[in-house]
Amino acid sequence: MRIKKLHIFILKSFISPLFVTFFIVIFILMMQFLWKYVDDLVGKGLGYDVLLELLFFASATFVPLALPLALLLSAIMTFGNLGENFELTALKASGISLWRIMYPLILLIAAISIAAFFYSNISLPYFNWKFRALLFDIQQQRPELQIKEGVYYNGIQGYVIKIGDKDVRTNQLKNIKIYDHTQNDGNTSVTTADSGYIKITPDKRFLVLTLLHGQSYVDMPEKNRSEQDRKYPFRRDKFSKQEVNIPLEGFNFQRTEEALFRNNFQMMNLKQLNQAVDSMNNEIKADANMLKSNMMYGHLTSSLSPPKDTSFKLDSTIKFNNVRFIYYLLDKNERKAIINQALADARNAKNNINSETEVRRNKMIRLRKHEIEWHKKFTLSLACIIFFFIGAPLGAIIRRGGLGLPLVISVVFFIIYYIVSLTGEKMARESLWPVWQGVWFSSLILMPIGIFLTIKATNDSGIFKVEVYQNTIIKFFKQVWSYLKPLYISISNVLSKKTDNR
Predict the structure, then answer these.
(1) Around Cβ 304, how many Cβ atoms within 10 Å?
(2) In terms of domains, do 122 and 29 share one?
(3) What SS3 string covers 275-288?
(4) Statement: the pTM of the whole predicted model exceeds 0.85
(5) 18 & 118 share domain
(6) 428-464: per-residue pLDDT in tens?
(7) 363: containing domain
(8) Are residues 41 and 375 in contact, defined by beta-carbon separation less than 8 angstroms?
(9) CB–CB of 245/224 below 8 Å?
(10) Partners of residue 209 on adjacent β-strands
């Protein structure tokens, strides 16, 4: 009964910081996302429903980054608080080992790791798909109408508008110029006005310009006149008030077909990634076989065959495997023609090889990305376990709670993990390392650290106490001095004897 209450207490102490730190990390990543894409979101007249949908899908894609960091930070905070309040000491004094204290959390972390795998394999591809499709639609959305003073605005297709001044209080525009380019004839139609007002219809289909005290100029076309006889006639109309309706295109938010983004490797589960990897491997092998066939039987046969206009006739008894014999049977012109043909074929073969090499390199990078994504379906689960076994013993050792020191240590470990992960993935993507080695490199680096910290915390080792390292260093130098002291004494005696003899 006492152990059961202890387990419930440990779970409550861990779950609360886990939820708080998880949403804090999600919020920080969300702020970074908004800072990165602020230019794509501001000034496009997007509704709140679209923005909330985008933020929801974006936050769902940040879970692989936020969950391991939240587990690390919450584990350090939980066991740091237990150590700082001497609760951990009291539990150990009563005969309860650290493993027994961590037992309910180990079961919880195992359940979270299993859920993280299914999230990476099922939910994350869906959220990546929705997020990329919606972000693409927003990026393609044209900005809202924002005409600035003294600047030619060409955001409306077929028109260029310039205003000299704008009254903020009355929303009145002054010195208006409108160039009509709908006929693709240049500045053949120009409208000017002393003042006016501008507004967009509620459905955003038309721009309504109310112009006051102005005039319009339209160049009139001339027919059947030479360039020297042209008079360049135009028509000028004056008005005291005129309304111009300009149709707006591309200002309404429209969604593209989401199936266009379905073939991206980040939108696939394990089964789809396996199928994609198999098909790409078969495609690469087929390209290699085709290139080999073209090199062996295309250019080679063409180079070794006599020209079509040669007088040389191959006898059926002559075998084609003796190239030098056939070559010397030809006359000088025929030899020269064959050499030129061989050089041309060699240049073509070199160009084909260079082209195929670049194509193969791009296909290999694409293949490596799919293979990396396949392995990353499992790395999130392992990262959750590793970070817990780093955070829990580390908190028990440093015995500091709160968000101060635990936050600093968590960020340091996470930055190391993130940098090593990016480095390994880059090495794997460039085919410098095997894919499994590049993806699992960060886990292989941090796993020994977690094992080491767990062993030290179980044995109550004070690895963060200065006295431990100070005593170790002093002991080391004393041991060294014990070996060097006889040598020092003997050298001193020899030098003293030489001095006395002099």
Answers:
(1) 15
(2) yes
(3) HHHHHHHHHHHHHH
(4) no
(5) yes
(6) 888 888 999 999 999 999 999 989 888 888 877 655 5
(7) 267-374
(8) no
(9) no
(10) 198, 244
